[in-house]
Amino acid sequence: MRMTARPENLHQSRLLHLLRDEGPRSRAELGEMVRLSRSKLALELDRLVELGLVEPAGLAASRGGRRSAVVRLSPRLRFVAFDIGATSIDVAVTNGRLEVLGHVSEPCDVRLGAPAVLERALELLGKLRDDGLLPQVHGAGIGVPGPVSFREGIPVAPPIMPGWDRFPVREAIGRELGCPVLVDNDVNIMALGELHGGMARSVDDFLLVKIGTGIGCGIVVGGGIYRGVSGGAGDIGHIRVDDDGPLCACGNTGCLEAYFGGAALARDALAVARAGHSALLAERLAATGDVTAADVAAAAAAGDPAAVRLIREGGHRVGQVLAGLVSFFNPGLVIIAGGVARLGHALLAEVRSVVYRRSPPLATGNLPIVLSELGDTAGVVGATRLISDHVFSPA
Amino acid sequence: MRMTARPENLHQSRLLHLLRDEGPRSRAELGEMVRLSRSKLALELDRLVELGLVEPAGLAASRGGRRSAVVRLSPRLRFVAFDIGATSIDVAVTNGRLEVLGHVSEPCDVRLGAPAVLERALELLGKLRDDGLLPQVHGAGIGVPGPVSFREGIPVAPPIMPGWDRFPVREAIGRELGCPVLVDNDVNIMALGELHGGMARSVDDFLLVKIGTGIGCGIVVGGGIYRGVSGGAGDIGHIRVDDDGPLCACGNTGCLEAYFGGAALARDALAVARAGHSALLAERLAATGDVTAADVAAAAAAGDPAAVRLIREGGHRVGQVLAGLVSFFNPGLVIIAGGVARLGHALLAEVRSVVYRRSPPLATGNLPIVLSELGDTAGVVGATRLISDHVFSPA
């Protein structure tokens, strides 16, 4: 497979990003947006056409004078996303504008280990390829549910991914697909998805808090992911809520994840069902032998007081930790996402109530705290945003 | 007074920053550092000489061929720092390399209000001017002990600065001195001081935690101050430690500042002295009618167990909050500074012990937590770093 073309300079890079984010534009419009002379712009665009990244797309409607030629990203551009969760794989193909052309998802236990999970991911991609969606691949972005050395493209000591530690994910997939590949933490990937196509489109500094099996935070500073000095930034699941809280899998007590998150919520719901404090949850337990976070959401929606209380208590703990992060980081937006976020407005109301009461007025005066509206597409869009930012930058 | 000259482009800006941070350099060295051709470099340097920012400084030692001409920042460059604390004013004058040429400091209650405090600051600057240190002023940086709208150069609802809210500090000092002026929070200013001349010189992402009358945090991301969307970032004094802690001046309970910081420590030390749990502190109370954080430091240094316990407990609370911030931000360095930081290694040991136990291994594996070594000069150096970054950038 031939090498993916990359722009040669920052002007070309800026043009590609504009065509990705704004869609087809006339040469006249592009010239104004990037502040290049007509002749210089023509030179850069011609080069992008030669590289196969851009192509002419007819003439613009007249703005009075001569009609300006419209250009667009090549419709043959394809980016691939692998969003690997604790219990699922999502694989998607997008065009250059990051519009999802095909998306498959299936349950998959990440604990099967890197070789098995990545092989299954490639098989799923094969299905999309069989559908004719993938004439070629210009880049692939991968999200995994654990800490990643972004520079090396490998998971580093990921707690819930046995068999993945230091596995060369980027190298393995890059060899298979013959294109540039980047690997990041799944929460960072979701934050990029929100930045590209969600509530955060015009926000430079924001937090995405993912509450799923675990709890993590994507941090965006100045429109880019902040990863910290060793890639560990946003690991908020083990921030202390209380000294005398429940024992956590990490060995400390009172961590946020030990109070809330999918596993803790299921544990508490089971206790409530067994103790006979909730008819609905007890019914669920009798019917299926188990209760899940989704059962709690359904019970709360049906007005079950014990389920509502579980959600409120969890939201309160999340709010306590988030209030500290808002005081520290003064973000422009907080997005709550992930499976437990589907508990919805009862959760959101409690989180908001604590943050707005506990963080300083200067930080909360104009701070929206919202639920993600992207759902499962945040991860795949974010993964292609990550790799397209790379492919659309000079080598 | 004539306008301060500014560089005209990014090449000139980079040359000025290099000459500020690295000292005089030969044209040959500068050409290598900024990757400019000999002729292009000569053009930019000539222009900087014309602007009065740079001047020739003889010939370099031979490196084999023709001896290269050395250039340096104009020795007539002067930056001014006003570091206004809760109970003190520091005023300093530096040259273009931010070397302190003169520094005066005196107690001053910030609650006297903006007009009185700024007038006193200008009087102190007048003393330095009388000493001949200030032929002209190229820029002034100001730190104040409260939240600041950096863009507007005004304090915004600062809790401990009555009479300062929205006072046009930048405009007032700018009019008086006839030069560019920037105003920032005092903790941000200290962090810039550490970045310029302290432990953080080669660290891009770090935290400076100031524990004085109040507790605040300076956040450096990618070598620059991160201020948050409304300038409130780093306001960590009111992060919750416990639900059932002491009542705080902010109206919540269990805030970090309600547990520790100058005022809380003095309160607890007074209680210890009155209860007869410390002979040394009781003696101090009898002698002066009061006990201060400095008394606790002295008593701890003399081996007083009650004083050591106060410091340990405070360090433990700071550590609990800091552990959360380290999990979230994954910094490359944490510096502890401010008056209470003079409690020294007993404090540091306790902070470290909590952070290293409670934050994830990926974040603490290579994380130094240190006491500031700059002391009072961090603020004034940081203030001139702030304004020189501005003056040495294109208008």
UniProtKB/TrEMBL annotation, chains A, B:
It comes from the Bacteria. Keywords: Kinase, Transferase. One of its GO terms (molecular function) is kinase activity. PROSITE patterns: ROK (PS01125). Belongs to the ROK (NagC/XylR) family. This is ROK family protein (Putative glucokinase).
